[in-house]
Amino acid sequence: MAYTTAILNQAYCRLPRHPGLKIGAVLSAMLLGVVTVFGLSPNTAIYSGPATEVLDAIHPPAIHFVQPSNTTIVREVRIQHSDTVAALLSEMGVDDDTAWRYLRTDPDADLIFRQLVPGRTLTAQVATNGALQQLVFPLSGERNTALQIARTAAGFNTITHELSGETRVVMQSAEIRHSLFGAADDIGMPDAVAVQLADIFGGDIDFHRDLRKGDRFAVVYESVTHTGNSTHSLRVLAAEFVNAGKSYRAFWFQDGDSKGGYYTPEGQNVKKAFLRSPLEFSRISSGYSNARRHPVLGKVRAHRGIDYAAPTGTRVKATSDGIVEFVGRQGGYGNVITLRHPANKTTVYGHLSKFAAGLKKGSRVSQGDVIGFVGATGLATGPHLHYEFRVAGTHRNPLTVVLPSGKPLSPTELPVYLHHIAALAPQIAAAQRVQYVMLD
After folding, report:
1. What is the pLDDT of residues 21-39, one digit of tens each?
2. CA angle, corner 192, sides to 231 and 358, nearest 5?
3. CA-to-CA distance for 66 and 46, rounded, in angstroms?
């Protein structure tokens, strides 16, 4: 099935993590399909209208308009299991042999290699030519202590210090021209914020097939700055995504000691019981069908799932909370995982290259947890993920099945929530009119 108007996100997909830093050839190949991948668009328009309108709607803030650098961008990545320093730098677009040699030989920089803890965020300021300008790595131990590696006129130096960061609220908006990440780069928005957007709206928008040229988003999020430079982003506070002319809005709300979550303006839970897709940004190579000629066997047979083409090693996420029912090798599925979910639902993840460390039958997983990695095991002509969704043992099309929403706000929480978003809603409206605004 062809989606002629859809933007296939492999045009600007995440680079597969690999142990080398020689990614010039990969970036060159990507640039053939996407012209404005790194840096900021030279034609970026900074909002210069009356500030009083925004000030009346937002309390307190004074507004400062910030012009991002035209030659560098800030990238950040959350460390996953089995990551390496080289792979993380590669993912952030670093192509710098001098920086790599320094990291490998400087005794202080060795802390990065020894404290590569999953869940921690690594932040880099990278020039458009791939040269590393600054690397900030939070250290174990005292809060807000970080290792900072910076390029100077005399070379690189390494210092350990307290970040003493200042949390600010940032408003940004962009239009989709090639991909979500491409639009984020155009306005200097960190990758982590783009990933949060995809996670927030992933239950309503299939980011693999539904993105359209001309779609747009606005986002309000917290950013921690140190000496005027963003070190890392925090939570998205409010966001709007307009897809194919339909607007989706979400606001973060946490009442007291509750876990917190994202809700619509009416108080409905944005989170669905299942994610639409177990992969971040790939393309669909084979859809759900009752009669498809099998590429290996050559026979016409039903294809009761969705195939997502992706590079070997791409992370595969659990689409919902569940318990591992099977993990191992099984016939044409190759390496496969079956998860059991409430309400007699199961999901299947096939052709994996390997499983997440420690995963075994009976393990509990949460929605979004990495459970395995894309491969080509079993009856597969190339690396891809085969994904199935079953209800009471009956296959359903994962792309069209109605996904139940999470628990809505209670009658006692709703008035508090509506009061809370009364200040956030005008910020989203203001963000639609600007490219980059930082609020004190």
Report:
1. 443 333 333 333 333 233 3
2. 110
3. 8
